[in-house]
Every structure is written in structure tokens, then in C-alpha cells.
Amino acid sequence: MPGELIFGAILPGASISILLGNLFYSRQAGKLAIKTKKNDVTALPYGINTVSLFAFIFFIKLPVYHDTKDPYLAWKVGMIACFFSGVIEILGAFVGEGLRRITPRAALLSTLAGIAITFISMDFTFKIFEKPIIAFFPLAFILIQYFSKVRFPLGIQAGLIAIVVGTGLAWLLGYMDGGSLGAGGSVFHFSPPQFSGGSMIELVQSKGLIKNNLAFFRAQV
Predict the structure, then answer these.
(1) Cα distances (angstroms) measured from residue 215 to each of 101, 124, 157
(2) How far is CA 105 from CA 29, 36, 111, 134, 170, in A?
(3) How confident is the prediction for the chain on average, in pLDDT?
(4) What are the residues whose beta carbons fall under 8 Å from the beta carbon of 134, sequence distance 6 or more?
(5) 16 versus 177: which is more confidently predicted?
(6) Residue 191 confidence (pLDDT) above 80
(7) What pLDDT was estimated at residue 121?
(8) Cβ contact 141:161 at 8 Å
């Protein structure tokens, strides 16, 4: 996909959604802590669903791109798929509590644990040993807080310190000097989120494209 699409539309949109989602969950955790009068309440982490990410890329966007060679069309089809996925999740929210009550907690959490170990932790574990001079310092801060229960100054979380230290090391050691990261050809580039609903509407109005892609999805299933 071209840089202006990735850095100008996809990443800004994803970043603002992750920021708002985590702020919302943090607010929920704060209200729950006040209601239960407990000081050990934590917020549910909010981010991109790793398993869905693989599914959207390899089963939706990649086939469309191979069929049309149009990265923008693949992106638009992916947005429509994300929209309908959100609709399904909203509908599932009405039955989620009932499923949780009748399903053993181990059965629910084992699925998440398997996903975390297979798709998330193992990949990053390999990256730690790929560039240990960068990764071991952030890892040390995480381990210190988790296992020694050390509180850092000003209540700063080890995760934030790890991100700052790791990013600083990557820049200082020259690992970030090899490429152009910005949409305009510069290393730093400000890209505010853009409303992309018009692109979805445009694709929906193009009946031929929708018909062909839906037929392709049915064939894949």
C-alpha cells in the first residue's frame, strides 16, 4: 500500500481509535473502583484484535488486491468489512452476558491465552532476541515492576517507560535512520485522522464492485 494511505489514513485512524478506547475503559475502571471502594481495579486493555487482523488482511484485503491490483479498493473493502464486524459485535453485546454466565471462565480465558501466546507474545519474543541491545532495557523495566512491585517516580507505569526508553535507544543507535517514515517523504509528518465514510459510500454505490467482491468472499468461505 502507498505511504500516503498507510501514514495518512490508516495509522492516524487506528491511533485515535485506540486512544479513545483506552480512555473509555480507563473511565469505566475508575467508576468501578469508586463503586466497589477498591484500589486494585484495572482497565481492560483496548487495541487491535490480532486474530481479526490476520483474517482481514489475508482473507479480505489481500485477495481483493490480487484480483484488482488496486490498494485503495482493498482498503475500502476492508473498511466495509470492519464496519459490518462492528455491527455483529454490537449485536453480540446483547447476548454476551448470558454466554458468560453459562460458560466456564477457564473455557473463555484459555482461548485468549492461546491467542496471546501464539500470535502476540511469541512474535515479540523473537524480536527481543533479534535486537537485544534495544529490547532488553525496556523488558527490564517491565520485569522490575511486575515481579518486584517497585513503583516508579510520579506513579509512571513501566509500560510507558519501556516505550520511551526503547524508542530512544532505537533512534540513538541508528536503527531508525534507514528509511523515510512520513507520508510526505520526511521522517516526521503530522497526519490528522481523516473521515473515510465517503470512500465506503462510494464503494457501496458501485454495485458491480460490491457484487464481485461478495461473490469472491462466498467462494473463499
Answers:
(1) 38, 37, 48
(2) 20, 22, 10, 37, 40
(3) 80
(4) 166, 169, 170, 173, 175
(5) 16
(6) no
(7) 80
(8) yes
Q: Are 83 and 18 in contact (CB under 8 A)?
A: no
Write the pLDDT tens digit of every residue in 108-164.
788 778 877 877 788 788 888 888 888 888 888 888 888 887 788 887 888 888 889
Cβ neighbours for 162, distance < 8 A, ≥ 6 positions apart: 138, 139, 141, 142
pLDDT at 172 over 50: yes
9 or 21: which leads in pLDDT? 21
For position 55, what pLDDT does the model report?
A: 83
DSSP string, the chain: --HHHIIIIIHHHHHHHHHHHHHHHHHHHHHHHHHHT-S---PPP----HHHHHHHIIIIIHHHHHHH--HHHHHHHHHHHHHHHHHHHHHHHHHHHHHHHHS-HHHHHHHHHHHIIIIIIHHHHHHHHHSHHHHHHHHHHHHHHHHH-PPPGGG--HHHHHHHHHHHHHHHTTTTSSS--STTSSS---------HHHHHHHHH-HHHHHHHHHHHHHH-
Confidence check: pLDDT of 68 > 80: yes
